[in-house]
Design goal:
single chain; 202 residues; mainly alpha; 10 helices
C-alpha cells in the first residue's frame, strides 16, 4: 500500500493521540486545537476536518483511552460463569489494579478537575462510561443475589462500593505515588475481601 494512503488513514488516530498528550499536559480548558495539530504534525484545518470542536476531540480521546477498558470489564462479566467471589478476586482485581497505571487515569483526572465547568462533558461521560460500569456491576451482583451467594439489598443497590478504591488509587498514583508508593492490587484485593465478608450468605 502506498505510504501516502496509509498515512491518510492513520491521521485521525494520530490526531487523537496528540490530543490525549495535550489534554494530559495542559488540561481541557488550556488545550488548543492548533497545539494538537502541531503535535500531530498536521494543519489545524485537517484537525477540524475530522473533529469539529475540542469537545468532539475530547470525546474521541475517551472512546480511545477509556471505553476499551469498559468493554474489557463488560466482556469479563459476560464470559464469567463462576461465583461472584471468583470474579471479584480474579478478573475484577486484575482489571481494576491495572487502571491507575493506564492512560485512563489522566482522563479521570481531567473529569474530576475540570468537569464542574463543563457539565455537558460530564453528563456525556456519565452516560457513556459511568452508567455502563454501574450497570455491569448491578448485573453481576443481581445474579449473585439470585444464586444465594450474597445477601439481598446489598451490593446490587450500592455498586459504587466497588469503585471507590479504584478511583482513590488513580488519584494516589497521580498525586502522591512519588512520595509513598501504593500497592494498588493489594488495596483492591483487601477491599474485595472486606466486602465479601460483609455480604456473603453465612
Amino acid at each position: 500500500m502506498p505510504k501516502f494512503v496509509r498515512r491518510k488513514e492513520d491521521r485521525p488516530e494520530e490526531i487523537v493521540a496528540a490530543a490525549f498528550d495535550e489534554f494530559a499536559e495542559r488540561g481541557y480548558a488550556d488545550t488548543r486545537l492548533e497545539q494538537v495539530a502541531k503535535r500531530a504534525g498536521v494543519s489545524k484545518g485537517l484537525v477540524y476536518l475530522y473533529f469539529k470542536t475540542k469537545e468532539h476531540l475530547f470525546k474521541a480521546v475517551v472512546r480511545t483511552v477509556v471505553m476499551p477498558r469498559v468493554a474489557e470489564f463488560e466482556d469479563a462479566i459476560a464470559n464469567h460463569d463462576g461465583t461472584l467471589a471468583e470474579f471479584l478476586e480474579g478478573p475484577f482485581v486484575r482489571i481494576a489494579a491495572a487502571l491507575p497505571d493506564s492512560p485512563a487515569r489522566h482522563v479521570v483526572r481531567l473529569i474530576i478537575a475540570e468537569g464542574p465547568k463543563h457539565p455537558d462533558l460530564t453528563r456525556w461521560y456519565h452516560e457513556q462510561v459511568i452508567s455502563r460500569v454501574l450497570a455491569a456491576f448491578r448485573s453481576v451482583f443481581a445474579t449473585a443475589e439470585e444464586r444465594g451467594e450474597i445477601r439481598p439489598n446489598t451490593l446490587a443497590q450500592q455498586p459504587l462500593l466497588l469503585i471507590g478504591p479504584v478511583v482513590l488509587s488513580m488519584l494516589w498514583k497521580l498525586l502522591f505515588d512519588r512520595h509513598s508508593q501504593l500497592d494498588v492490587e493489594a488495596l483492591i484485593a483487601a477491599h474485595v475481601d472486606l466486602l465479601l465478608r460483609a455480604v456473603e450468605v453465612k
